[in-house]
Specification:
The protein is an alpha+beta fold and 605 residues long. Helix content is 35%, strand content 20%. The chain has three domains: 151 residues, Creatinase/prolidase N-terminal domain (Creatine Amidinohydrolase, Chain A, domain 1, 3-Layer(aba) Sandwich); 142 residues, Creatinase/prolidase N-terminal domain (Creatine Amidinohydrolase, Chain A, domain 1), CATH 3.40.350; 258 residues, Creatinase/methionine aminopeptidase superfamily (Creatine Amidinohydrolase), CATH 3.90.230.
Length: 605
Amino acid sequence: MLRQTHEARLAALRQELEKRGLDGFVVPISDEHMSEYVGSYAQRLAWLTGFGGSAGSAIVLAGEYEGLGAAMFVDGRYTVQVRDQVDGKLFEYRSVPDESHAGWLVEHARKGARIGYDAWLHSRGWASDLAAALGKIAGELVPVDSNPIDAVWHDRPEPSPAPAFAQDDSAAGRSSADKRAEVADWLKREGYDAAVISALDSVAWLLNIRGKDVDHTPVALSYVIAHADGTADLFIAPDKVTPDLERHLGNAVRIRPRDGFEAALGEFSGKRVAADPGNAVAAIFQLLEDGGATAVAAPDPTILPKAIKNPAEQQGHRDAQARDGAAVSRFLRWLEVEGPSGDVDELSAAAKLQAFREETGVLQDLSFDTISAAGPHAALPHYKVDEDSNIAIPPSSIYLVDSGGQYRDGTTDITRTVWIGPGEPSAEMRERNTRVLKGHIQLAMQRFPDKTSGGALDALARMHLWQGGVDYGHGTGHGVGAFLSVHEGPQRISKPGGAFAGTETPLRAGMILSNEPGYYKQGHYGIRIENLVLVVPAKIESEGDYLAFETLTFVPLDRKLIDKDLLTPAEIAWVDAYHARTRDLLAPQLGGEDLAWLEANCAPL
């Protein structure tokens, strides 16, 4: 039935393309803001193909073509998942970055093909590169007036109607007026009249507003045009604006209908307007230029200030992490008791963890879909459990849970790997887990010169794994927002020259990142240890300014997976100090068996 559904959808799309005189169409996972996570109304790729990952794209050809005439493009994180969810009799599987849209189209599209794309879902750079590549087959890249998938997706959800709401200045640490003045100063220095702020979390940060329009990310569907005089235009659906929000925004922020944004981009004739090519879609640049403006590709001026958390945001994170840590600890004690029965499955475990977070009374949402991974599923770093993939957690196995919560004072993200009894983990499991732990500790303890890039630190987390002849395929750390996106740029800790932007971004005091080395034995088990860390000034005598990491996440590590003999005295001291701090922070929030479990698991090694 599922195949027939996607086969029918593919056929309907091809008919629509032929009706429009198009020979093909590119389907990304994206929205008008180039968000990582998108609302249900924008899940066009999932509707067409069944793919449920957060990164991927497809190309569908119509008319005459070679082979299947359709291809799915995913990176190494989704090699297994795409084959489980997308029918290989309908779509070829293609791996990025080794294979590209351009290469596939040149090989499979007919000469002179007209390939459509939605300019509201792609970057200008992508469109320029693909248009040039299509020249090899005398082809043309054609922006569509409306998305052809929307024409055949008859039960497509409407965008969320949820109202936007204010994030209090006490939690934000700065007023919107202060932030807008900083942006205005930047505009005047750079010689711009205005800047288009199109990333949803940038809009939220600049105006101190939040929303419920995207699962797991507290943002409202909207755009901002910031002006050099410190005022701003907010483009948002009128039914999202409450009287409280109007009072919060004040007279310096003009509230305009979201569907008026396109026309507003034509109001800048003779002006210089900045837009970030990383999150402003191709249509924004084109509409600015069509209206007579000079559209300048420039970094979003809110990105760096948003990444450098002020003291109020830092303390909010500490408070949120402590609250979240108690909830996760209660879950791990429950799992230790119930897991060995074999009656707990991946979905029920994830639901139980969410219930413990909800019992705090202040959980707003999860910060992402919980990665609840048992046995061989733990070897898939970005595994997403659903009704089809769900399995019971096997007794005598490793279980990995990567999860987080959204609270008004902070965003959490933590991974713990635990042994589910009875019995004991194998020597190999303990050795691999201890090497991951050693890498985690190495990074957590590191001191480094101010403005050192994340790429320069990445090898510290891998060095002990490398010495054992193993590695992991994902980055070591990503930025995290303050009641915003759990994946926030520009900073990250990853191998230099990798596929992720931000590797070379200098780290600054106030930035928050994850510290999450791992190991994955395909088909058997996986290990990851993740805490969040805050970049702080190092308390050492040094020649120049030095930085260090303050650990923010406190939940016990699984002692059964630690081989103490592989740890140095300094590493043992770090684990004991970490557990002592965990006990002090969480004990006042726990009682009874939960407190006894905490005490036992925080005892010195």
